Structure formats: structure tokens, C-alpha cells
């Protein structure tokens, strides 16, 4: 099991936070304690968050396979991983597929990527019925892990074990927004022996008896708590409170350990979902120098508080009167396909004759009029500065007002983008922004993906 390992990794958490006290006050007139849950924006889904996590995992060049694990796919009868592949600017070479349907898909994506040396993207939105524990304790987030040869890895896969049983613990029928669960004691009785078997097999496969760090992930909170006590590891758990993030949950917790672990330490990743799966990894001397750029703990700081009614509206649980404005037209497939590199990867052109960057791409230079003298000019990883902006309170938007900014990108290029994750008080001429992959709108079941601009640094605010 020492032929492959993790070369790089990255996590993404959305900016919005829903206070537990806000939920309780709205439903019962009483608070429900402290804490907050992570909430994806109205323009985010498992695909867009997966793109951001994959970008955080580093340079995608040379990547030839992507597995997207999610229990909340944006499309049900279309591959969602292809949009991630396109947004990473990988052209038409390589393989991309969904591993969808349930949180256990995370293990499937990790094992497939480890076997083939590809990228596992774990991304999920968790929606519970109003007032439920799923709503309160869920989380929306994503994580990505790129695998490759063990001699170029920051953590090597050294053991694995699995146990499978068919029992009804949690389920959601197609078309339903929220899951349902069976009585808690039944789930504990099912999961504990399966987890014991999976962990024993993984430790035996790794040739060790104890590990330094343990990651436990399960949609069954009571089983997860008992498993964490049963397999404590030599190093006390220190993962920050995130909430259960579905298919992304084991990825977030593993990434947090990698953010903190030292070289030559062992990690047990235990996932109890429709069975039990255990992976054992050993970190290498490359880890300290190759951690993700911003640790998960730092990503969780701050955030923008969200009203409960806004959250319910974004999730389709509250049918509010829509804005009385013309809705967008349905996105057309042919022009999207023709402009794939621009629309999904945000690639402009740079004139070889005079160096001018054109956004969107063109064949004829606007400055020197050279024809077909263009090189690709990727913009997705470039920050920029707001040259001017508008706040439109009349345009259609699920979260008005609609803010648009004219961005001057570092290194050349100017373009107008919608603003994400910020209010009018957070945008000014001179504000530094960065591109982020989002969903502009959805019409007749078609999602119009493109790029928006978000402030590079933002303070807390009320949404």
C-alpha cells in the first residue's frame, strides 16, 4: 500500500454563517445555544465549491483524472465533475466522473484517486428540515486531494479496511431536499462492530497497532462520538467544530490534521456511513513545506452572518415572492460549448505583438490590430483592483442588490464581474478582489456557471 500518496490538498469553506441562536429565535422564540454552521451562498453548489477546493490544492497541470464525491449533485442526469475539469483549464484530455448519492462516496473517490493517481474532490451541501439536528449541525464545504507516486507525497497510504452491511440508518428519496434518519440506538448498534472490523483490517494492512491521529466521520452523531472515544489515537483530537459536511466531512478533518501534523506520523481516517471504511496514512518529511496555503482553522475564522429566512429561501424551503423583474433567459448549450475555455476556465488572450490582454478573448488586437497573434491569458488565479462599480437594486437576483465591478487584473486585462459574498458597504474603488467560480443563475434546470469577484479580505457583516 506504499505505492501512492497525497501530493497536495486544499479545502474550501463558504463565507456565510448561520447562528444557532438565529434558528432557535426564528422557530421557537428562544435561542438554541452558541455556535454557527457553514452555509453555501445562493450562487454556490457542490460543483462550484469543488472547483474552489481543487484550486486550493495547487497547480492542476498534468492532472488526467477527477472524481467528484457528493450527496448533493447540481445535476442528477449529467456529470458534474466535467465542469470542475473545465474550470481547472484542463482542456479535453483526461477523465472526470461523479461518485454520488451518499456520504460514503468520499471513500470511493479517495480510493479511486489513490489507485489512479488523480484528484479526489469531496464537496457537499447538507440541508435538514427546519428545526432539525441536520439543519443545526450540518455544514457546506469542500476538500480536494491530489494523489501521485509515494516518493513525491506528503502523506503515503499504507493501509485500508472496509466492512459493509445493508441497513436503514439514513435515507432521502430522489427529489427530496432533506434526509431522514432511524432511531439513534439502532445506528450505534450497527456501526460499532463494522467500524471495529474496518479498523482492525486497516491497521493489520499497515502493520501497526496504534496511530498518532484519528479522524472520525459519520452522519450518525452518536456513533461518531462513541467511535472517537473507542479510537482516540496518541495525539488528542483538535479539529475545530465545523459541523457534519457529508461527503466533504472526512476530507475537511483529514486536511485539518495535515495542517498540524509533523513528519513520520500516522493518521487513521474512519468513515462510518452505510458500513465502515478505514484508511491509514503516514506523513513524510515533505509535509511541513507543502501544506495548503491557508489552514482550515484560519478559513473558519470570521464569516458573514446570515438571516434564517434568507437561508431558508436559498435552500428552497421558503417560497417567497420573487422579484417582479424579468428573469434571465435559459442558457444555450452551443455558445457555452464554443466558449468553454473562456466561460469555465476564465482564459483571455494576450497579444504577442504588443502584450495587451483581452478579456474576453479576441482574434484581433484592439491596440495594435494584429490578427491571430494571441496567446492564452489565464485570469482565474489573478487578483485585481476595482476600477468602478454599480449597485443595482432593480436587476433580478436571488440576493439583491446586484453589485457589479469593473476589475483591472494584475498583469493586464479589464472586465466587468458580479460580486460574490459581499454587501455594498464592502466594495469601493480600489478594493482588491479575486475571481471565484459561481453559478450566475439557473433556468429550467440549467445552471449558468461563470466567474464572479469577491473581496480578497472581508470583515464580518450581516447578510
Automatic annotation (TrEMBL):
Ranges where the ChsH2 C-terminal OB-fold domain occurs: 381-438
Pfam family, one: zf-ChsH2
Highest taxon, organism lineage: Bacteria
Annotated ChsH2 rubredoxin-like zinc ribbon domain residues: 346-370
Annotated stretches, region: Disordered: 319-338
Database matches in SUPFAM superfamilies: Nucleic acid-binding proteins, Thiolase-like
Basic and acidic residues bias: start-end ranges: 319-330
Transmembrane segments: none
Name of this protein: OB-fold domain-containing protein
Species whose genome carries this gene: Patulibacter brassicae
Amino acid at each position: 500500500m506504499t505505492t501512492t500518496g497525497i501530493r497536495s490538498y486544499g479545502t474550501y469553506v463558504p463565507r456565510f454563517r448561520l447562528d444557532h441562536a438565529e434558528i432557535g429565535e426564528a422557530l421557537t422564540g428562544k435561542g438554541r445555544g452558541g455556535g454557527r454552521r457553514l452555509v453555501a451562498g445562493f450562487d454556490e453548489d457542490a460543483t462550484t465549491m469543488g472547483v474552489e477546493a481543487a484550486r486550493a490544492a495547487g497547480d492542476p497541470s498534468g492532472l488526467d483524472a477527477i472524481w467528484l464525491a457528493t450527496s448533493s449533485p447540481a445535476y442528477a442526469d449529467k456529470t458534474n465533475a466535467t465542469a470542475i475539469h473545465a474550470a481547472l483549464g484542463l482542456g479535453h484530455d483526461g477523465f472526470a466522473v461523479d461518485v454520488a448519492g451518499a456520504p460514503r462516496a468520499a471513500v470511493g473517490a479517495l480510493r479511486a484517486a489513490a489507485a489512479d493517481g488523480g484528484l479526489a474532490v469531496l464537496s457537499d451541501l447538507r440541508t435538514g428540515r427546519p428545526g432539525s439536528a441536520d439543519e443545526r449541525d450540518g455544514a457546506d464545504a469542500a476538500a480536494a486531494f491530489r494523489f501521485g507516486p509515494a516518493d513525491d507525497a506528503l502523506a503515503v497510504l499504507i493501509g485500508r479496511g472496509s466492512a459493509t452491511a445493508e441497513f436503514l440508518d439514513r435515507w432521502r428519496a430522489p427529489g427530496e431536499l432533506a434526509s431522514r434518519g432511524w432511531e439513534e440506538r439502532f445506528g450505534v448498534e450497527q456501526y460499532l462492530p463494522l467500524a471495529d472490523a474496518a479498523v482492525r483490517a486497516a491497521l493489520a494492512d499497515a502493520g501497526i497497532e496504534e496511530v498518532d491521529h484519528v479522524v472520525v466521520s459519520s452522519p450518525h452523531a452518536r456513533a461518531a462520538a462513541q467511535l472517537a472515544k473507542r479510537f482516540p489515537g496518541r495525539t488528542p483530537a483538535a479539529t475545530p467544530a465545523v459541523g457534519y459536511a457529508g461527503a466533504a466531512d472526512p476530507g475537511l478533518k483529514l486536511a485539518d490534521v495535515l495542517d498540524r501534523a509533523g513528519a513520520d506520523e500516522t493518521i487513521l481516517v474512519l468513515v462510518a456511513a452505510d458500513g465502515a471504511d478505514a484508511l491509514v496514512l503516514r506523513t513524510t518529511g515533505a509535509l511541513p513545506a507543502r501544506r495548503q496555503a491557508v489552514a482550515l482553522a484560519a478559513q473558519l475564522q470570521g464569516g458573514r452572518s446570515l438571516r434564517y429566512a434568507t437561508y431558508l429561501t436559498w435552500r428552497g424551503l421558503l417560497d417567497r415572492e420573487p422579484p417582479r423583474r424579468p428573469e434571465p433567459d435559459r442558457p444555450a448549450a452551443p455558445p457555452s460549448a464554443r466558449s468553454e475555455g473562456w466561460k469555465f476556465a476564465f482564459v483571455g488572450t494576450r497579444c504577442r505583438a504588443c502584450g495587451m490582454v483581452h478579456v474576453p478573448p479576441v482574434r484581433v488586437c484592439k491596440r495594435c490590430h494584429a490578427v491571430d497573434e494571441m496567446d492564452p491569458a489565464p485570469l482565474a488565479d489573478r487578483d485585481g483592483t476595482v476600477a468602478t462599480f454599480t449597485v443595482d437594486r432593480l436587476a433580478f437576483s436571488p440576493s439583491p442588490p446586484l453589485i457589479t465591478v469593473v476589475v483591472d487584473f494584475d498583469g493586464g486585462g479589464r472586465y466587468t464581474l458580479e460580486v460574490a459574498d459581499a454587501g455594498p458597504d464592502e466594495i469601493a474603488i480600489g478594493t482588491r478582489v479575486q475571481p471565484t467560480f459561481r453559478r450566475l443563475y439557473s433556468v429550467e434546470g440549467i445552471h449558468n456557471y461563470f466567474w464572479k469577484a469577491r473581496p480578497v479580505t472581508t470583515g464580518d457583516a450581516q447578510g
